[in-house]
Amino acid sequence: MSQGEGQDAATYRVVVDHEKQYAVCPVERAIPRGWREAGKQGSVMECLAYIDQAWERLRAPAEVAGARAERLS
Questions:
Q1: CA 16 to chain centre
Q2: Residue 64: CA atoms inside 13 Å, Cβ hemisphere, count?
Q3: What are the residue boundaries of the structural domains of the chain, listed by start?
Q4: Helical H segments across 1-73, by residue range
Q5: Tell me, which fold does domain 12-58 have in CATH?
Q6: pLDDT digits (tens, 9 = 90+) for 25-57
Q7: For this UniProt entry, which segments traverse the membrane (predicted)?
Q8: How far is Cα 45 from Cα 71, in angstroms, rounded to an integer?
Q9: What is the side-by-side strand order in the sheet with 35-42?
Q10: How many Cα atoms within 13 Å fall on the side-chain side of residue 45?
C-alpha cells in the first residue's frame, strides 16, 4: 500500500465549546449543539495540528503566571 492509500480523504472542521474544549467534526455533519466553528477546515491531521497549536496558546499564559509566582515566593 502506498503512502496515500488508505488515508481519510474527508474534510473536517475544528469545533470548540464554551469551555474551550476542541473537537474534530466532519464538515458534512451538523455542528453539535453547544459547539461552534473554530475557523479551521482540512484533513483530520491538519485539524489535530491546529488543536495542538491552540492548546499551546492556551497553556502559555498559565505557565508564565506559574513562573512569576515561583519567583515571588
A1: 8
A2: 6
A3: 12-58
A4: 44-72
A5: Rubredoxin-like (3.90.820)
A6: 999 999 999 999 999 999 999 999 999 998 888
A7: none
A8: 39
A9: 22-26, 12-17, 35-42
A10: 3
